[in-house]
Amino acid sequence: MVISLSHAGIGLLIVLYLGLRGRESKLVVLFSILPDFDVIPYSLFLILENKLDHETRNILFYLMGHREFMHSVLFFLITILILHKLEKNSRLTIACSLAMFSHLYLDYATSWKMRPFFPFVKESSTLGAFYFFDPLVTVISLIPFFILLMEYQRKKGKWPITEPIHEYVQQNKRFIIVSIICIFVIWCSMAPLIKLLLINHVSAKENNLVSYQNTAPISPGKFIGTYRFNETHYKIFEITYWNGICRSDFIPEKSFCNITDNNSVYISRAALLYDSGLPKEIDYPVYNITENSTTAIVTISDARSVYVKYWAYYKVQYTFVFDKQNSNFAVFLKDLRKEKRPVALNRFIKSY
After folding, report:
1. Model confidence, pTM
2. How far apart are CA 113 and CA 220, in angstroms?
3. Is 244 strand, coil or helix?
4. Of 252, 267, 285, which residue is a domain's last?
5. Which of 225, 251, 342, 348 is least buried, going by the fewest C-beta atoms within 10 A?
6. Does residue 212 share a domain with residue 245?
7. Same-domain check for residues 49 and 166
């Protein structure tokens, strides 16, 4: 599971490898989880966003949002330079750099999008090379905690049953740590390349270009991919390393209920409004519209969302409710929290 605990575990792995202690070890672990401190400015942003105009909101979202500026290369460089300036310790700087870089890479390699090259590139992206709950990364990140916990309990005279394990670890500690690091580096390096081979294979088989970054992991070794099949449908499919395409389906881009001839106007308005806001989670928009005499309701979701239950950035649904009598509208959002809640209108630009 690639969460703050996992990142801290990788930081501890670096600490054990370098034999750091005291304040230096704490700094390395701190830097391994530092990007996730963006939840603090993000919480402040959520409090303030309703009071901001559209442009200010977007700027602050880039700077204060979760997995935004504090997960960027620029923030990484600024932070490391400040650390080196203050500490004047090259060994510590390298250790903290590795710890923080591992955090950024792991987050970028999972299925959640980031803007690592902001402000130079504002588009979000991801490698999507392995699942959020990747078992190998999870086990590797927990091993340092187990080693330290075992040493702590031994000093207190507890866990006598682990004494043989403790002795083996102490005798072979260097070899164990180096081996774990090698496995971790090889997996993190190879996973994106293996995925690339899989995507190329599927693209050739489908005779269509399948997006690398928008093919998202949904479980270990399994991905969900999509491409536009024709003007009206997407083709969505599950693929694995061992079976290729497991199943596939065709998802209509637009579906209608109780529609008049003006339905396309409301879909266009909803699309323009959605495109003007952030964070833009949806890659393959699917539109559903219902109408009555007074309102038109347009929902926008991602074509892949029907295939995924948990932990996907695109598992969202925007509902735009338009008043036919005037230009007023309301917007509601449903995401992983599974509750529909209103969205502040300053997220969008009225372009009609």
Report:
1. 0.91
2. 18
3. strand
4. 252
5. 342
6. yes
7. yes
How are beta strands 329-334 and 341-342 bridged, if at all?
antiparallel
Confidence of residue 350 (pLDDT cuts 50, 70, 90): low
User: How crowded is residue 206: how many other Cβ atoms within 10 Å of its Cβ?
Assistant: 16
The answer for residues whose C-beta is within 8 angstroms of residue 6's C-beta and 6 or more apart is 106, 137, 138, 141
What Cα–Cα distance (Å) separates residue 165 from each residue in 162, 170, 173, 257, 283? 5, 9, 11, 65, 49
Tokens, residue 289: 């519209």
* pLDDT score at 39: 95
- Please enumerate in sequence order all residues whose Cβ is within 8 A of that of 298, keeping only pairs 6 or more positions apart, or say none: 266, 267, 269, 270, 287, 288, 289, 319, 320, 322
Question: Looking at the structure, do residues 153 and 238 belong to the same domain, yes or no?
Answer: no
Quick: pLDDT tens for 104-122. Answer: 999 999 878 999 999 999 9
- CB atoms under 10 Å from CB of 346, counted, come to 17
Close Cβ partners of 243 (under 8 Å, ≥ 6 residues apart) = none
298, pLDDT greater than 60: yes
Q: Give phi and psi for 147, each to the nearest 5.
A: -60, -45
3-state helix, strand, coil in the chain (%, to 5): 50, 20, 30
Surface-to-core class of residue 349, CB atoms within 10 Å of its CB (0-12 exposed, 13-18 middle, 19+ buried) = middle
DSSP string over 43-98: HHHHHHGGGS-HHHHHHHHHHHSTTSGGGSHHHHHHHHHHHHHHH--HHHHHHHHH
Bond from prior residue into 279 cis (ω within 30 degrees of 0): yes
- pLDDT band of residue 260 (cuts 50, 70, 90) is low
Residue 306 pLDDT: 81
Same domain, yes or no: 157 and 12:
yes
Contact between residue 147 and residue 169 where contact means Cβ atoms under 8 Å apart: yes
Do 108 and 206 sit in the same domain of this protein?
A: no
Name the nearest CA neighbour of 199 among 143, 240, 145: 240
Q: Is residue 352 domain-resident?
A: no
